[in-house]
Design goal:
Putative hydantoinase B, Oxoprolinase-like, 5-oxoprolinase (ATP-hydrolyzing) activity, Hydantoinase_B, alpha+beta, 23 strands, 15 helices
Length: 647
């Protein structure tokens, strides 16, 4: 799709998208490390600049944005954070027409080549210029890009994420790739159109200015790199970096997966329009042999994925040969590294792309939707695909992968404050990660790099509510030899009438456990818990009314457990009780540990041995490899496991 924009030398090179015409002599390995470190530093500097100069809570405080650096052949060079794609900009604006100081913008999901998932994700791209020779005209040698989730871009509800949308036209303003700044001069007309469509125009204007300015600064930093070492030398380092990633993943990751074919599937539970059901996402993983015609690689076949939803959970994954989706999913594979420390060292950049081949179903599925299908809650699909890949790899490697996690959902309140001004407080709360074959899962993590919950001091000073509690949701982590991480429990008491919104999945289905581990607890939002007006909100809702004085309790998902919970050492269960991660009842029911309560809780070892023996005897002979929790039966017509849950 993108070969028309590539240089002739790159198009005919030994490796696709390569910047140097032939492999040639390798660059100085020390210089390669210097260049890699420089890129990572620039990426971090861009993100730091945005966080310090933006205005909206979502960007400035929650850090729901990320930056990326790409070469002139559109390859993602950095791996600390994921980003969108440069492909749609290069498609619509030939590189030779670009000028220093230009800034390009887009958020149109269907014209983003798969790099933008929903309209609130606004993307700015800045070309980097350098001279190949001292007397030559500067040419495009790289790109700096930033995209983030903004508070509001129009549409039929505050936040631009209507849970009942049936077309993208209800979700906000769609902007195809445009030139937002022309040689350093902002396009005020375009900016005015965008801010006019937003319920938060001042915050949107400030955020866009911060992102454009930060990327322009990053472009200047990269120009300095090219001027210092020369374009040819720096580009040879880029090639070496990509080659190193490819070989590292082939040697350390792909080698752990046995040759063969494996299939697994998981589900989103609702789409905001139809009644809850199993929205299937399926992956058939094929690991090929080195002597295969296409070489040693992983083939991810998504055939069997369910039809596109009426509601907004669709994701445009099949554009640009799945380039964005490959880099989105590849971090899961790092769990096969020899040690956790080594896993943390492995970045995901364009070097993983030659190792993964994608096969998509025909148009009209959850990951191949047809315009104008809505997409604002596509997180339900792209997060689930992370779990589907983890599950199918777990089948191949005898469970030596983490159990499931669901570490992102949007919750918030909106209305008028005491001065009569409209406000929107939206938060992207995390959840527990899955237990691993060597350790418990982590508590309250988030899939977006460096993201965080909103500080209580900030929200209470700006919005008309009080945060009465923010802590860990006890018993939310799935039981296992290694317990799943815990989710949040947050209580908000409104001081003025308002409306509550939630864009969340895993409220019926749970994060699955693996190899004997149990599923975690699902997401829930309850109004007036324990009070006369107690009721549970739907996990996908736009405008639930809340009266002044009422409390909203939010509990986010716990990660799935790994391994047999009856094999968890008693002292670890007792420690969890002391840390208030597991209750006395949970210890008995989930782990078969009988606790004697008191000032210093202790364990009745005889009763524990008896109870654990009883629980083992009650198990069936052929237990599934994956535990989906009790919610699965509710949506499957009574079945407690799927056909692919056995190995």
């Amino acid at each position: 799709m993108m070969t028309a924009i590539l240089d002739a030398a790159a198009a005919t090179a030994a490796k696709p998208y390569r910047l140097t015409a032939t492999d040639g002599a390798s660059p100085d390995p020390i210089l390669v490390e210097i260049v890699a470190g420089y890129l990572a530093s620039v990426e971090m500097e861009v993100e730091t600049s945005i966080s310090r100069t933006s205005r909206s809570p979502m960007i400035r405080d929650a850090h729901d944005f990320r930056a990326g650096i790409h070469d002139r052949n559109l390859r993602k060079l950095t791996g600390r954070s994921y980003s969108a794609l440069v492909h749609p900009i290069a498609r619509d604006f030939p590189l030779e027409t670009m000028k220093p100081g230009d800034v390009y913008f887009h958020n149109d999901v269907y014209l983003s080549e798969g790099g933008i998932g929903h309209l609130p994700d606004l993307c700015v791209t800045v070309p980097v210029f350098a001279r190949v020779t001292p007397d030559a005209e500067p040419k495009v040698v790289a790109f700096v890009q930033a995209f983030g989730h903004h508070d509001d871009i129009g549409g039929c509800c505050p936040g631009s994420m209507p849970s009942g949308a049936t077309t993208v036209y209800e979700e906000g303003l769609m902007v195809p790739p445009i030139k937002l700044w022309d040689q350093g001069v902002p396009n005020e007309a375009a900016l005015r159109i965008m801010t006019r469509n937003s319920r938060m125009p001042d915050a949107l204007a400030a955020d866009l200015d911060a992102e454009c300015s930060a990327c322009l600064m990053g472009a200047r930093r990269l120009t300095e790199l090219f001027e210092r070492y020369g374009v040819d030398t720096v580009e040879s380092c880029f090639d070496a970096m990509m080659d190193a990633t490819t070989e590292t993943y082939r040697r350390e990751i792909l080698s752990k997966i046995p040759v063969g074919e494996y299939t697994w599937e998981d589900y989103a539970e609702h789409d905001g329009v139809d009644e809850p059901m199993l929205h299937i996402q399926r992956i058939t993983l094929t690991k090929t042999r080195p002597e295969d015609e296409g070489g040693e690689r992983l083939i991810l076949d998504f055939n069997g994925t369910g039809p596109q939803a009426k509601g907004p959970i669709n994701h445009c994954g099949d554009y640009a040969d799945g380039n964005f989706l490959i880099k989105w999913l590849a971090p899961i594979l790092r769990n096969l590294a020899d040690t956790p420390e080594r896993m943390a060292e492995l970045d995901v950049n364009e070097g993983v792309v030659p190792l993964i081949e994608m096969k998509f179903p025909e148009k009209g599925t959850l990951i191949t939707p047809i315009f104008p299908a809505p997409t604002n809650a596509r997180t339900f699909v792209i997060l689930r695909l992370l779990g589907v890949l983890a599950g199918v790899v777990a089948k191949a490697v005898d469970g030596n992968m983490p159990a499931d996690q669901e570490t992102i959902r949007y919750t918030g309140v909106y209305g008028e404050d005491f001065e009569g001004h409209s406000y929107l407080m939206r938060e992207v709360l995390g959840g527990g990660s899955g237990g691993r074959y060597y350790a418990d899962g982590e508590d309250t993590i988030h899939v977006v790099p460096d993201s965080r919950n909103l500080p209580t001091e900030f929200t209470e000073s700006r919005f008309p509510f009080i945060v009465e509690k923010l802590g860990l949701a006890m018993d939310s982590g799935g039981a296992g030899r290694y317990r799943g991480g815990l989710g949040y429990e947050k209580h908000i008491r409104m001081l003025k009438d308002a409306h509550f919104m939630s864009i969340a999945d895993r409220s019926i289905l749970a994060c699955w456990g693996v190899k004997g581990g149990k599923a975690g607890r699902p997401f829930s939002v309850v109004l007036d818990p324990g009070g006369p007006n107690e009721r549970e909100f739907d996990a996908l809702t736009d405008a639930e009314p809340i009266k002044a004085g009422e409390v909203v309790r939010i509990r986010t998902t716990g990660g799935g457990g790994w391994g047999d919970p009856l094999e968890r050492p008693i002292e670890e269960v007792l420690r969890d009780i002391q840390w208030r991660k597991v209750s006395v009842e949970g210890a008995r029911d989930d782990y078969g540990v009988v606790v004697i309560e008191g000032d210093e809780p202790s364990v009745d070892e005889a009763a524990t041995t008896e109870l654990r023996d009883q629980l083992r005897s009650e198990r069936g002979e052929n237990e599934p490899f994956f535990d989906r929790g009790p919610g699965y039966a509710q949506l499957s017509g009574g079945a407690t496991s799927a056909v692919y849950d056995y190995v």
